[in-house]
Specification:
mainly alpha, 82% helix, 0% strand, elongated
Amino acid sequence: MNRKKVLLLLSGIQFFLLALFVMLFVNKAISLTVFLAVAVTIGVVFSALIVVAIRKLPPM
């Protein structure tokens, strides 16, 4: 896979995970602290994966 495909895949997965937790928060299934902890964790993990993808994979 090239960098563009990996970045699109990671961004799509991150979007769906965040959308899932936003729906759970809006429906009062999880509390604010759990939502914030999960959102920060998802952000950190996917940011690290994006940095690794940019450094290791060919551009096109």
